[in-house]
Design brief:
alpha+beta; Aminopeptidase; 7-stranded mixed beta sheet; 26% helix; binds coenzyme A
């Protein structure tokens, strides 16, 4: 089941992230930081256990980042990563603000095909706004980034979040 995260999920989210941050695949996030930004997390729960998570972060400029996408290895290749990213897209598109000028989602990833299937395109890292690089100083690979930068335009829409699939018909109506 896909749902918004609550405070009680913070430790489980951190455990998932730690699976990958310890090998440098993902940025470590302290528990206090996860708790502070718990409203930006989406989780996937199976039999009472958090087995997938991701979060959204606006760079305060024109871009929103999909971060900390992690799925428990026991649950790989069942579509959970895809469901989380689809929900993140939907939340970003229903919550983004023209006033704030947000116009694209971006991600740094090693799993290009997952994002390509969801409409993201590879871009040169240098085309992303400078603020995007704020977190890179905490990354083990900051001097030699081997992740791929990908972006997807935000299409503003006015439908409730937390459904699994973004309906092309609804998106078309909202444009
Ligand atoms: C990347 C990750 C979130 C994918 O989760 P998942 O639930 O297994 O993903 P899905 O089942 O939705 O996969 C959808 C598609 O993504 C691609 N994909 C998923 N895992 C992949 C992998 N390890 N290598 C290459 N492609 C992969 C495939 O195209 C897959 O479609 P297919 O199963 O029909 O071949 C998970 O492997 C993970 O947590 N990895 C470690 C952390 C990480 O790299 N996070 C991404 C940071 S942006």
């Amino acid at each position: 089941m896909l749902r918004k995260a609550g405070y009680g999920d913070a430790a489980s989210i951190q455990n998932l992230i730690r699976l990958y941050s310890e090998t440098g695949k993902m940025l470590y996030r302290p528990l206090e930081e996860i708790e502070k930004h718990i409203g930006s997390f989406i989780v996937y729960e199976s039999e009472g256990e958090i087995v997938g998570a991701c979060s959204l972060k606006s760079d305060g400029d024109r871009s929103i980042e999909i971060r900390s996408l992690a799925v428990d290895p026991r649950y790989y290749r069942r579509g959970i990563g895809t469901a989380l990213v689809l929900e993140a897209i939907e939340q970003a598109e229903s919550g983004c603000s023209r006033e704030r000028g947000e116009e694209q989602l971006f991600v740094f990833t090693y799993v290009v095909s997952l994002f390509q299937k969801l409409g993201f395109q590879i871009v040169e890292k240098s085309t992303l706004p400078a603020k995007v690089w704020n977190d890179c100083k905490y990354c083990l690979h900051s001097d030699k980034c081997d992740e791929t930068a990908m972006v997807r335009p935000l299409i503003r829409q006015y439908i409730p979040a937390m459904s699994y699939v973004v309906s092309p018909a609804i998106v078309a109506e909202a444009i």
